Amino acid sequence: MRHGTLVHTNVVANIHQHLFHFKIDIDINGRINRYATVDFRTENTTRQWYSNAQKQQMTYETNTRLTEYDANYKTQPGNHYDIIYNQYASSKFGSARSYRIVNNNKANFLLKNSDVTQGASWAKFPLAISQLQETEVMSSSIYNGNGPWHPVVDFERFLQNNDTIRDRDLVAWVTMGLDKIPHTEDVPTITTVGSQVSFYLLPFNFFTECPSISSNSAVHISADKESNRVNVNTFGTPLTSSCIQKENKPSNFDGKIKPID
């Protein structure tokens, strides 16, 4: 078994994980919200035009979670969507207005059984949903490292009272992570290519159409190789902002924002 890799002369780097935790206070048309998983399923049925032929098709079902224990799992279930929705705010098509939490880098925490990691117990949960509490401001503390066996802030305690999460002010806790086996290309600087983590909050039946259709501030920026300049297309909208950096060569760039011509 190997715990590290020789990456340079007399330099060994250990295997490790990079983990990031975010607290998301989501209010969908008010603070009376619910959390559900939209679970993908398959079913077998007969074809209407062939009585003896079986057909397998995809379907889904929405499962509302009632308590913090129901919602918080250290191992995520199968293919599903995580949504926060308002049962009492529906679109004109009858769908409950919702937002979907998309975690592109769910972390399978490898040291769940190590007592020293109790100071970062949030890492055990790819996603946790809790009822908003004024005393649960953050999931960790700068002092947790001083006593990780009995941390000042133990995130797992937030969930032990098993509060109801049906029609309550909800908070989502998202953990993202990367597994890292060091290699020689990490010297002298670890590259960011392939090492990004991200999550999205996406409307899910919240709008009646794609909201970008009504955007009045669309901007498309492209490079003009022939003139060696940057083209800015605002699609007829006057451009009054100076947030786009004027082109500079590395030799004369001074770090200051220049106004657009």
Explain this structure.
- The chain is mainly β.
- It has one domain: Distorted Sandwich (Beta-galactosidase, Chain A, domain 5).
- The protein is built from 1 helix and 12 strands, in the order E-E-E-E-E-H-E-E-E-E-E-E-E.
- The strands form 4 sheets. It has a 5-stranded antiparallel sheet with strand order 5-4-6-7-10. The protein has a 3-stranded antiparallel sheet with strand order 3-9-8, with no helix packed on it. Strands 1-2 form a two-stranded antiparallel ribbon.
- The chain is globular, with a radius of gyration of 25 Å.
- InterPro entries: Cu_amine_oxidase (IPR000269), Cu_amine_oxidase_C (IPR015798), Cu_amine_oxidase_C_sf (IPR036460).
- GO terms for molecular function: copper ion binding; primary methylamine oxidase activity; quinone binding.
- Belongs to the copper/topaquinone oxidase family.
- Pfam families: Cu_amine_oxid.
